[in-house]
Design brief:
By secondary structure, the chain is of the alpha+beta class. The protein has a domain at about 20-65. The protein is about 20% helix and about 10% strand. It has one helix at about 40-55; strands spanning about 20, 30. A two-stranded antiparallel ribbon has the order 1-2. The N and C termini lie far apart (about 30 Å). The model has no long low-confidence stretch (mean pLDDT about 95). The structure holds flavin-adenine dinucleotide. Flavin-adenine dinucleotide binds near residues 8, 9, 34 and 40.
């Protein structure tokens, strides 16, 4: 072995990113948990995050990406890859 490297894959429990306001902390937003697709999905994640922060109309329905899904008793289903 000449060289090696490693890194974290930032998975969420349902493999769907969190792109969301943090309800308990006013003015805080999260765009993370890209679940191994952060390079490919980055432009879309950034667009939706910017929409949420700016209060603009969201480019897609933000509901599936809300942080609160892990705390509001929503049924958590692993997303399609
Ligand atoms: C081996 C591997 C292969 C991958 N292959 C693909 C692929 O083929 N296609 C694809 O789309 N995605 C791929 N990904 C996933 C992609 O790399 C990630 O989804 C993406 O990099 C996440 O981007 P991010 O900006 O959310 O987080 P990151 O790139 O992790 O950036 C977070 C930054 O925050 C910094 N940070 C952390 N804590 C603190 C702190 N307390 N204070 C200040 N700074 C802090 C970190 O140093 C880091 O620079 C791969 C990931 C890995 C590990």
């Amino acid at each position: 072995i000449v060289s090696s490297w490693g890194g974290y894959i930032d998975f969420t429990p349902d493999a769907v990113p969190v792109i969301s306001a943090v309800d308990s902390i006013g003015g805080a937003f999260v765009a993370a948990g890209c679940s191994g697709h952060g390079f490919g999905a980055g432009p879309g994640i950034g667009h939706l995050a910017a929409d949420l922060v700016a209060g603009d109309a969201a480019i897609v329905d933000p509901a599936p990406f809300r942080l609160s899904r892990f705390a509001d008793r929503s049924k958590i289903e692993v997303g399609a890859f």
